[in-house]
Amino acid sequence: MAHEGFHEDPKILSDLTKDYHRIIQSTMEELEAVDWYNQRAEAATDPVARAIMEHNRDEEIEHACMGLEWLRRNSPVWDEMMRKFLFTSGDIIVQESASADQTPQPDSSAPAAQTGTLKIGSNS
Ligand SMILES: [Fe+2]
């Protein structure tokens, strides 16, 4: 079995944490593919080649969104943040600062992926 980029021994990780990692890895790959296809589409000189790459880019966006939806369904923090920031029209930075002090504290007895304690890089 491939190591699949785990940073800890997979034997000590829960199935949920391993799937959480797999989905994040897959979603990153989909987003990278979106960027690549987008650049290739813009650079293409043949309109059919451009259309194919735009189609492929948009399929990768679909795949990335599927991964994000899995994260939302399996982590209350992803769910909370998506509800807070997605499909809104206000100032994103103002929204973040206004609610920085209102972030709920996780239940320390629940698995990390379920409590949202995997807030890597968060300053809040
Ligand atoms: Fe894909």
Give the cofactors and ligands: fe (ii) ion
Uncertain residue ranges: 116-124
Round the Cα radius of gyration to an integer and report it.
18 Å
Helix fraction bin: 55-70%
> What is the overall shape?
flat
The residue-averaged pLDDT reads: 86
Q: Can you count the helices?
A: 5
Written account of the structure:
This protein is mainly α and 124 residues long. It has a domain at 14-96. 64% of the residues lie in helices and 0% in strands. The protein has helices spanning 15-43, 47-74, 76-85, 92-99, 112-115. It contains 5 helices and no strands. It is flat and about 50 Å long. The structure holds fe (ii) ion. Fe (ii) ion binds at residues 30, 33, 60, 63.
Structure summary:
By secondary structure, the protein is an all-alpha fold. Helices cover 64% and strands 0% of the residues.
SSE blueprint and pairings:
Blueprint: H1 15-43, H2 47-74, H3 76-85, H4 92-99, H5 112-115
Helix pairs in contact: 1-2, 2-3
Bound molecules: fe (ii) ion (FE2).
Fe (ii) ion (FE2) is lined by residues 30, 33, 60, 63.
